[in-house]
Design goal:
The chain is mainly α. The protein has a single domain, classed as Fumarate Reductase Cytochrome B subunit (Up-down Bundle), CATH 1.20.950.20. The chain has a two-stranded antiparallel ribbon. A hairpin with a 2-residue loop joins β1 and β2. α1 packs antiparallel against α2 and α2 packs across α3. The relative contact order is 0.14. The structure holds protoporphyrin IX containing FE (HEM) (2 copies). One protoporphyrin IX containing FE (HEM) binds next to α1, α2, α3 and α4.
């Protein structure tokens, strides 16, 4: 298969739109558990934005698995190639797991899950305080893991752009002129 020089336009659009949305979700999540005043408004934003991220992550995963992607630089040490691939798949796993755990924990807690207006999500797990007690801290712990992975990812992207000065940043930032 001929490999392109850049990620396709759908991958690039979803990458940058979801980067903004996921950053927002991490701060909305952290804000709503410490603010009494804005808790209700932040939660009302957290649920639908999180479900939008789940849908977009599925579209992105299908695009990723079915379309060719640009290669990493041939001279990149294999440990860095491995770290890039492993961290990208970890990011995909967390983009899918975070909203699913949020949805599952509210289901297990027996809470209603309003999205917008009269639209509610159905429960995906039976009511169980024990399962809720497991999933609620898991949602918080994986949010930390997501945040740390994104910081590492951001550091790696800047390392490619400013230190190695290779083509990696442009593969996600620019289109193919040809
Ligand atoms: C990319 C998706 C998501 C991210 C990054 C995210 C992030 C977070 C973070 C950082 C917290 C605070 C955790 C803590 O301090 O323990 C949180 C809490 C929470 N999240 Fe999410 N979340 C996501 C999706 C969802 C979804 C889809 C739902 C529900 C449908 C949801 C429901 C909740 C609830 C109910 C809380 C806790 C509120 C409380 O107990 O005070 N989350 N989330
Ligand atoms: C905050 C600023 C960000 C920058 C500067 C950035 C930069 C980049 C760059 C340059 C690439 C291309 C790597 C390559 O050519 O192999 C890339 C790929 C990727 N990024 Fe980011 N990124 C950011 C945020 C995020 C966030 C928040 C996520 C998801 C949580 C994410 C997930 C991914 C994934 C999964 C890939 C692999 C390509 C794919 O399969 O879509 N990025 N990123």
């Amino acid at each position: 298969m001929i490999r392109p020089h850049h990620f396709n336009v759908l991958a690039r659009l979803l990458h940058w739109a979801m980067a903004v949305a996921i950053f927002a979700m991490l701060f909305v999540g952290a804000g709503m558990v410490v603010s009494l005043q804005y808790r209700a408004q932040l939660l009302a934003l957290h649920r639908p934005l999180g479900m939008a991220i789940l849908l977009l992550a599925i579209v992105r995963l299908v695009n990723r698995l079915t379309r060719p992607t640009p290669p990493l630089p041939a001279d990149l040490p294999s440990i860095q190639k491995f770290a890039a691939h492993a961290s990208h798949w970890l990011l995909y796993a967390l983009m899918l797991a975070m909203p699913l755990i949020g949805w599952a924990m509210l289901s297990a807690g027996g809470y209603p899950i309003p999205l917008f207006g009269a639209v509610h999500l159905p429960a995906i797990l039976p009511h169980s305080p024990v399962v809720y007690g497991f999933l609620r801290p898991l949602h918080g712990a994986l949010a930390y893991l997501l945040f740390l992975t994104i910081l590492g990812h951001l550091g790696a992207a800047l390392f490619h752009a400013w230190v190695r000065r290779d083509e990696v940043f442009g593969q996600m930032a620019k289109g193919d002129p040809r």
